[in-house]
Amino acid sequence: PDALKRIAHQAIERKSGARGLRAIIEGVLMDTMFDLPSRTDVKRVIISEKCVNGEEEPRLVLTEGLPKPRRPRNTGSKKNPKSESSVS
């Protein structure tokens, strides 16, 4: 409830309507929106007033019993140490 009041207050300050509310919410959830599609262990995202103020990140409530998803490995062009020849 405090987060909703803070979002509404920011929209009033900006003199914006529904699009302004959407922009504020998208700003708060920007990083979270990119992370969530690749995760299967998140049950809920909690936004506090501090999140809206930029003082903390949204809190993720995880589903119990599900494994955490693995992050994709960096597939950059690292050399394979076994393939390098060594002189003895």
Task: Summarize this structure briefly.
This protein has helices at 2-14, 18-35, 49-52, and strands at 42-46, 59-62.
Task: Give a verbal description of the structure.
This protein is of the alpha+beta class and 88 residues long. It is 40% helix and 10% strand. It is built from three helices and two strands. The chain has helices spanning 2-14, 18-35, 49-52, and strands at residues 42-46, 59-62. Strands 1-2 form a two-stranded antiparallel sheet. Helix 1 (2-14) packs across helix 2 (18-35). 7% of the residues are buried.
Widest sheet: strand ordering: 1-2
Share in β-strands: 5-15%
User: Any idea what the radius of gyration is?
Assistant: 21 Å
Compute the number of strand runs.
2
Overall mean pLDDT: 80
Question: Number of helical segments?
Answer: 3
Fraction in helix = 25-40%
Structural class: alpha+beta
Largest sheet: 2 strands, antiparallel
Question: pLDDT under 50 segments (min length 5)?
Answer: 77-86
- List the secondary-structure elements in sequence, H or E: HHEHE
Inertia-based shape: elongated
| N-end to C-end Cα span | 69 Å
